[in-house]
Amino acid sequence: MTASTGVTVGKFNPPHLGHRHLIEVSAAQVEHLYVLLCERTDQTLPAELRRRWLEDAAPTNVTVVVTPDDLPEENEPWAARTLDVLPVKPDLAFTSESYGDGWAELMGAMHVPVDLERAMYPFSATEIRSDLGAHFHCLVPAARADLSRRVVLIGAESTGKSTLAEALAIELGTTWVPEHGRWYWEGRRHLGNQHWDSDEFYRIAMAQRSLEDDLARLAINGVVIADTDGLVTAVWHERYLDRVGPSFITPSPDLYLICSPDFAWEQDGTRESERERQWMHERMVELANKSGAAVQVLSGPHVERLAHALELVHPLTQFSPLL
Predict the structure, then answer these.
(1) Fewest CB within 10 A of the end CB: N or C in the chain?
(2) What global pTM score does this model have?
(3) Is residue 141 part of a domain?
């Protein structure tokens, strides 16, 4: 029979896969688990952000409670703090630390150790903070999505951006985000000349961003590569509706890579904007330069573009140490 209430405690700075394992194992043994997240003002990652990442990774019977990290690192004050902030006294206390027995006893709870030897996840939050880039794969998925650097390839039709996006992601060993608008077009093109409306473009832009955020959860090296974003969708809105659309350009990436139309236009069976190709390129350059993101135009054959892109993206895989 499962116990009624459990508790675990930590800084979770940042939340990693070992923390997720601790919480999952603990939550499976109680009706409700409280996770006490300790907050200090000098930490790089705000407690509310860490709380959200933990809640994303945790089972539904888990509540994360934020408390100040303002006590001595001794069991007695932390046992008193735990009993003070929780609505009920815990039956079980879960830790992967040597202090667990004393902390649990002071609360009148039973200590349940979880992987004390760190055999399943042999790393610590301290190691992750010191070299986030090398340990990015250790983070919980929501943390990867929020901390990952975003690189977006944009360009008019027949500029090689989709091919380059996939090749770049493969070289980097990370995820890439296909173009949602292309899928949408494939689904509607049999309707012929049915008019587009602004709402369609808005939903394409939002779906593209949602797909990017989902795949960023898997970006284990800290970078996600996207084929287009809301900026491109905005230009297509102008192309089809002959007017600037509503504001649905999604948050700017860390880097825009713009593929030049400097080779012959090729028909793949669906393309239809050869005459607008140069205008669309120039419009995307204009909007990208206004976005606040870093911008680089790529030209030349695919091999040269890929090599140049790798040089530009490599610095984004480097992260400053966290506090």
Answers:
(1) N
(2) 0.91
(3) no
